[in-house]
What we know:
Layout: H1 9-72, H2 82-92, H3 94-97, H4 99-103, E1 109-110, E2 121-140, E3 143-160, E4 171-189, E5 200-206, E6 209-211, E7 217-225, E8 231-234, E9 241-243, E10 254-256, E11 260-269, E12 276-281, E13 291-294, E14 296-303, E15 306-316, E16 322-331, H5 333-337, E17 346-355
Amino acid sequence: MKEFKVFNPAGYWHDSSHISRKIGLKILTQLTLFTKQMEYTMNKQRSFFAQLLSIIMLSMLALFIGCKESVVEPESTEPTTDQSAMIKLADEDSAISSFEPNYNEEDAMSFFGKTEAEIYPFRVGHKVRLVNRNLTVDIVGDTAYGTITKTFEGTLIIAASYNSGATTPDTIIRKPFTSVITRKIIFVKVANTPFPFRNWRIGAISLPEGGVLSENIDIQKLTAFLPNGDTLVINSPNSYFLSRGVGWWRQFPIIGADKSVKLSLEVYSAYADTDFVTLTYGADKKGFHRAKRKFVMVSSVPSGNGFLKVYEQTYTTHQFIGHYHAIINAFPKQVIFDDATPVESESWGVPYFVRP
């Protein structure tokens, strides 16, 4: 006969409670682990954001301090003496810096004008490089009088032919030389800060002059007829000052684009032959748009042991706005037309500004 087990509700309940406690314990353990993980994650995020906030605040503080300090401290490249400040002012002045791109012709250049000589030059030019620069300054109250001297090493380049019937050059003649160019600058004091570069400005500049000087060639006078009717009469370039602002000096020549300027030049020469006198002009800071013309002699009369000659030429400004220099170079004839004669020359410069 089959036996039947008697159902015991109390035992069943005891077993069920045990299982439930196990399940509850596991759930509680998982919840505890999850809570700790959440707390760890949140703490880590708070730490990250705290670090990020600290970095941002430190960066802003450093930027603030840097900006504050920049107001009172000069840049590392700022001059620390009056003389070095004046050199920087001269180097950065466009009217002054426009001299060298026109003085340095870089190669033998074609020129407009006929030549008649034994060796028949076709192109003439000189290439120079600055090897020394010196500024002497005499400060008198709120005005400083400076003389800047630049020494150039150069090569006179002549593309010529020894054949009178040649139509193209067949030889290149190179003659080394050293030239010295001087210019005077007047500086005006405008402030009294601890930083010299902020205390001075250029009030006026003289015209440059120099070259490979000798008693055999000497430019004595230049007359420039400007298109607006003004006339510049120059006897001594280093004594002829042009204003770089408001002042009692002569005003800076401003010439319209595509306008013509006539030049008349008086030259003393020890030789009866026509000298080789040229005008180089129009080059910008990179040497572009450079042009060259040969002066024409219109008269020559005996004077002392030599001759006083008058040369003329007209040039036309181009359409590019900016600061430029017209450079006059005068050589005795044999310097260009003889392959052995050493270089003798005198150079004058006239700065001008081209406007629309």
